[in-house]
């Protein structure tokens, strides 16, 4: 058996920040999960209802692996990414860092993992691998999935090789700190501004605050849109609150990031942004509860209420990001 020593599996919420935390702590940089999420400019919004989709998708963060690339660029980290279509090479790319005493990040489809509690396809899932033997691999996943977990090498290979939305070709990655690391505290304001700018200047109406406004128009019709409302609406609500989002579609993580920032930087704009995202987090949780209730009861009035709140959320988040963009 090969195991990287000293790996700490913390019970964090979001898969990509969980894996990043493992890799960076091993390199000597220990940051909170909200700080990793914020420094990676991770917050976003997308409303997507494409052709052939069984039900609309609400997303609250940037696309998979963009957070990792943002964080590495902002902190001057060495991000080494490998992809391949060869199963043999894919295993070698994952095992080599572990053999050298370093954990490695893997992007995969969680559907195939033995320990995963909800068997749904999601090709943007990220884990940290820190050990293996001839049968199993040792991974760190979110606290919700068990933290330090094991899955068979065969299941890992299937998860990494899966093709479909948001998947990557057996992607593995390692992170290294520069000889003279940048001050991460000095990168907070640029990270906040970049996130705000992207949110406000989203190129299509499905994204950013305009996407939230669109959701406010579409969600009231979800009972008719759903193939099975009693299944689809509670499932959508569950993903918003518990699908690795940290609660309130990632707004809790961003609220906590801004709270941490206000303790480090004396700035009225940061305090205003934090106050508005604290308000937004409460309202997003209310929206998810109304969506779940509508699915369980068939009461369209719950979705009308959710639509009204989403219109308010579009305004609140736009106001917050306009303040944060001016930092």
TrEMBL record:
Q: Where is the DUF4872 domain?
A: 155-324
The Butirosin biosynthesis protein H N-terminal domain sits at: 14-142
Descriptive protein name: Lantibiotic ABC transporter
* Source species of the chain: Planomonospora sphaerica
């Amino acid at each position: 058996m090969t195991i990287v020593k000293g790996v700490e599996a913390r019970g964090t919420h979001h898969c990509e920040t969980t894996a990043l935390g493992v890799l960076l702590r091993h390199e000597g940089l220990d940051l909170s999960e909200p700080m990793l999420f914020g420094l990676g400019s991770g917050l976003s919004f997308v409303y997507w209802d494409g052709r052939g989709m069984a039900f609309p998708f609400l997303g609250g963060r940037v696309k998979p692996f963009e957070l990792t690339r943002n964080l590495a660029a902002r902190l001057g980290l060495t991000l080494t990414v490998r992809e391949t279509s060869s199963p043999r090479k894919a295993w070698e790319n994952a095992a080599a860092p572990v053999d050298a005493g370093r954990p490695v990040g893997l992007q995969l489809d969680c559907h195939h993992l033995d320990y995963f509690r909800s068997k749904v396809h999601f090709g943007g899932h990220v884990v940290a691998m820190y050990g293996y033997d001839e049968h199993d691999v040792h991974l760190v996943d979110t606290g919700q999935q068990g933290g330090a977990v094991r899955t068979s090498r065969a299941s890992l290979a299937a998860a990494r090789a899966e093709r479909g939305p948001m998947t990557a070709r057996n992607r593995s990655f390692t992170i290294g700190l520069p000889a003279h690391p940048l001050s991460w505290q000095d990168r907070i304001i640029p990270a906040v501004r970049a996130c705000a700018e992207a949110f406000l200047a989203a190129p299509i109406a499905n994204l950013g605050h305009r996407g939230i406004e669109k959701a406010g128009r579409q969600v009231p019709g979800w009972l008719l849109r759903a193939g099975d409302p009693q299944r689809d609406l509670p499932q959508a609500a569950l993903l918003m609150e518990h699908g690795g989002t940290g609660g309130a579609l990632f707004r809790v993580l961003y609220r906590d990031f801004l709270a941490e920032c206000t303790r480090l930087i004396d700035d009225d704009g940061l305090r205003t942004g934090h106050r508005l995202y604290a308000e937004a987090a409460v309202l997003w949780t209310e929206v998810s509860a109304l969506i779940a209730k509508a699915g369980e009861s068939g009461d369209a009035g719950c979705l009308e209420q959710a639509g009204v709140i989403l219109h308010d959320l579009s305004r609140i988040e736009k106001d917050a990001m306009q303040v944060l963009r001016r930092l």
